[in-house]
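Support request from a user on the community tier.

User writes: "When I paste my structure tokens into the form, the page sometimes reloads and wipes my input. The last time it worked, I copied everything first. Here is what I submitted, just in case something in the input itself triggers the reload:"
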């Protein structure tokens, strides 16, 4: 990230170089912001009734910028090129933001996240038991949320019982939003039998149940090289779902996943690393349930089994789902 100092005599040369680094970072961020805004705006300009999508957030990591700036002081920031400072758009006013900054081993912010607890398959033949234990969800001290799936085995009377534990975090009762942009930077550990997901449900689920509340899966992976994004509405009987989905290549690196819930059309547009890969409009699906004024809340979880199948013995536990940030605006 930065240069290592060999002593005080190197400080001036470091400071000069780091100032240049900051200027470069800001200019890069502005270039990315303008490029993405122009690209997205052109893509969504037709038909004319559609609103332009929100501009992309800068790709420069906030923590990287702050760590450099901290060593320089305020003076260095005031000497950035005037064109960079003068044209920068003010920071987004997020409706929800969690950067997961906190001490290693600490809990996710309880003002933002609650937990689903227990097992029983969760309607999908899942194998895990969800907990609120720090063994299964915690901050790593490097600005990331860790959702960890663990495996334990007990042998009694010649019979071995395998138990999986994991975590499922949710914002219901703490945050939900109707329309807007939902974005998360996520790193998967792709393993057979593991099912990580970032998704959203209608906040009226306790009143109308599932699937009447609707479901949008921004990111799911079933242990292979593809990620799936899907929109689910209830079928005519109200017991199963109708689905529109897309698959995109996926790996174990960091990627930014975004859902734009368009207030002008009521539809959804999905992006991976700033590249649009699917749009679903109300007219494309029967029983559309996302234009009723009901907001949606978010869920982050790492399931075991279910649609991903039983993990083979080759999977080395623990398996982690890492989240750098979640932002909604």
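"...and here is what came back when it finally went through:"
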């Amino acid at each position: 990230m930065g240069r290592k100092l060999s002593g005080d005599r190197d400080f001036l040369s470091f400071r000069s170089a780091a100032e240049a680094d900051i200027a470069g970072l800001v200019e890069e961020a502005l270039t990315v912001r303008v490029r993405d805004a122009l690209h997205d705006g052109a893509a969504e300009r037709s038909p004319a009734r559609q609103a332009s999508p929100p501009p992309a957030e800068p790709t420069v990591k906030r923590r990287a910028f702050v760590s450099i700036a901290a060593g320089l002081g305020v003076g260095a920031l005031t000497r950035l090129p005037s064109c960079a400072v003068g044209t920068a758009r003010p920071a987004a006013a997020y409706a929800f933001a969690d950067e997961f900054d906190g001490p290693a081993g600490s809990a996710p912010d309880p003002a933002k996240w609650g937990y689903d607890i227990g097992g029983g398959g969760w309607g999908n033949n899942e194998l895990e038991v969800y907990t609120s234990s720090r063994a299964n969800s915690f901050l790593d001290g490097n600005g990331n949320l860790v959702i960890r799936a663990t495996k334990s085995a007990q042998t009694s009377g010649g019979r071995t019982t395998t138990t999986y534990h994991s975590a499922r975090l949710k914002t219901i009762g703490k945050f939900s939003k109707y329309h807007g942009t939902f974005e998360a930077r996520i790193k998967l550990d792709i393993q057979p039998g593991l099912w990580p997901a970032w998704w959203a449900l209608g906040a009226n689920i306790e009143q109308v149940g599932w699937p009447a509340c609707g479901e949008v899966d921004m990111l799911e992976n079933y242990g292979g090289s593809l990620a799936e994004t899907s929109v689910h509405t209830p079928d005519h009987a109200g017991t199963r779902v109708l689905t529109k989905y897309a698959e995109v290549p996926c790996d174990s690196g960091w990627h930014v996943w975004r859902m734009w819930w368009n207030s002008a059309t009521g539809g959804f547009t999905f992006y991976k690393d700033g590249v649009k890969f699917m749009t679903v409009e109300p007219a494309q699906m029967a029983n559309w349930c996302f234009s009723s004024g009901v907001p949606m809340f978010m869920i982050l979880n790492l399931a075991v089994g279910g649609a991903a199948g039983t993990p083979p013995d080759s999977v080395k536990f623990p398996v982690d789902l890492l989240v750098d940030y979640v932002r909604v605006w």
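Agent notes: The reload is a front-end session timeout and is unrelated to the input. The chain has two domains: 8-87, 96-328. The longest helix spans residues 11-44. Escalated to web team.
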